[in-house]
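Hey, resending since the last one bounced:
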Amino acid sequence: MAHVPTANGTAMTGATSLVKSLEASGVDVMFGIPGGAILPAYDPIYDSTIRHILVRHEQGAGHAATGYAQVTGRAGVCIATSGPGATNLVTPLADAAMDSVPLVAITGQVPSLAIGTDAFQEADIRGITMPFTKHNFLVTNPDEIPRVIAEAFHIATSGRPGPVLVDIAKDALQKQTSYDWPTSINLAGYKPQTKPNQGAINDAAALIAQSAKPIFYVGGGVIKANATRELLELVQLLGAPVVTTLMARGAFPDSHPLHLGMPGMHGTVAAVTGLQKADLLITLGARFDDRVTGKLSTFAPNAKVIHADIDPAEIGKNRYADVAVIGDLRETIEALIPALTATLAKGRADISPWLQSVNKLKATYPLGYDTPADGALSPQLVIERLGKICGPDTIFAAGVGQHQMWASQFISYEKPRTWLNSGGAGTMGYAVPAAMGAKVGAPDTTVWAIDGDGCFQMTNQELVTCALNNIPIKVAIINNESLGMVRQWQTLFYDSRYSNTSLDSKRVPNFPMLAEAMGCIGLSCENPADVDATIEKAMSINDQPVVVDFRVHRDAMVWPMVAAGTSNDEIMIARATAPDWDSQEL
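The structure tokens again:
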């Protein structure tokens, strides 16, 4: 949004300096709730060019900022007051850190002389969030506000993206100051390396040319680096198979013949086995997390590893890298393409038997699901039809649990930034506010939240925010009246002892009526024959949020599955194949 720059040296309050600094940073929208300590900042917000969206809970503000950031690639902004306002941002900040989302959180703090006295609504939010923010600041001098805001956005969006917290004492907002926007940023000790080392690029090209069973292990970093076009070019050059992690869905087209699907705990057989049997992992922006590797000591035992990442801390953290390439992934892939082209021209290993093997796996073990014998509505059918009817331009934001996995499996993702979810933290309640933020960031795009009945009941109050602010998202509640993923574990590993996982959500609450009470359109569906018509009706309503209660079969399960703590070699494709082993931590 265009704004008139404020001249350096202009006198104003710290609060006005904060708002002018946000405008100078290019912020066009922020999500928040006022309160005592941050209240001085809300007066200049009243006159600002920045759109402020008043949410119903600070957690909603944080997740909305995340959804906005994931869709736009820009830093999302949330704002809250001190104490409980700030602590309600803890979960979104931790979530953004795990998934490398650029976020700037502004919090008010008690007056500087009261810090450390257990003053009303005081919390050491800087200390609380230090383990899972990329950096955080405590500002007690109003003169520092422009510099700190400039640095916060620079840190959040450069290198490996992540959340930054700026905590500002109330008296710093109230005092007079001179506004001085920095002309440059120079942070000692913070110099992200974006250009890869050419020697490492050449080593990677040589290793790739020698490999008879290479596979691309693609993580969310490819999307963060806006490197999907370059990835496609590199894959087509080599002709090797590709797997895309949960955070990388859409980084490589699902429809491409070289795509094996998603690896990991609920990945495809072809993707999981392809990683296990490869002799080379070409790892791009992925971090060898436990949900992909399974039992780490047994993961891809015969494979050498090329690991390319912007964050040097990820190299060797979980798996030794034979070739480490540190740098921006787009620059890395752009450098690797000509190097590999030249290397392959001199000769290469024959990978055709490898391609035949993984393609046979892909054909033999496609994703599928059983239709409930009692004629009940299958959750996989609902999600599959959502993908087919809505098309590849639609943005889907999922909660966490079974519906998240089905949404990653049964919707075809062809484009980046169309799949949003909480991958690392696994945050229930993410979907509705994230979809809200995504719709704000992409107002002309259809945005669906695919949520479970458990997740939905954590943050559905943000539908009021959507209704009042003309943010017409659509919500598909996959209502199996259970905490479904936990119930699945109880079925498999706890002798079907369903301790505290039944929600009775088909009885209370009445989701369509709840939606109507919050200013939305409420629909319901429990007959498989009505699924398409219900989705199409929801798609026809674009001036209000829409909530659809899909009342699905209770005991549908997510397959395939690699149980936590086991080797990927023990992948289960149905309950009958589950090994007899002691229950593991979820």
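Residues 578-586 have pLDDT under 50 and may be disordered.

Sorry for the duplicate.
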